[in-house]
User: What shape does this take?
Amino acid sequence: TAVSAQGRGRTVAVAAASDLQTVLPALAADFEKATGITAVVTFGSSGSFFAQIQNGAPFDVFMSADVDYPRRLAEAGQADKRTLYRYATGELVVWVRKDSGLDVLRGLALVRDPRVRHIAIANPMLAPYGRAAVAALQSEHLYDAVRDRLVRGDNISQTAQLVQSGNAEVGLLSHSTALGPSMQASGTLATVPSGMYPSIVQAAVMVSASAHRDAAQAFLQYLKSAAARKTLAAFGFGPPPAAR
Assistant: This one.
């Protein structure tokens, strides 16, 4: 098609929060099919990317696990505030291995079980899901009882590895991460009621120093499409607040 011929050979560099690891390959493939533009994706914690972009890292688009980091970049002139788009709402889940003998349906209360020696969360200094995990534990008055048993991953993927490998008995993860094939094969999840933690509104923005502005805008435009929303929903993301 004319569109893909025009887009062929073009790329867009996307810095993406680790909770997008399960869904972004599908989104990127659909985007490339529609536009001919290849999304080159790097995964990590939102806080790390925030610092990297502040220091001039050559990304075109930043897909954060919260709205705060993109907003702060926009306020500092390091992202284009006109392009800020809330693309999804994240969900927190409790995850345990199938062979753990623990009943995940007990939800957060499970952390009181004496067999639970370690609870994996993402680093709250860097990862929005880590902050949500702390807030959920605090809302249930569990945080002080378990704080010495918390083990932290730098991002949500590392956190998942901690609990999947058995280095923690319970993990507080993003729903999308828990829906990854190996996580589904080896464990079970229960969603944490959304009232227990502040809403995880996830947003994307174009980096001001982007060398591929047209491709970046095309990617952000694609995220707003019905197809992209459907894919995000299939991987455990709720709709962005405006869509509710």
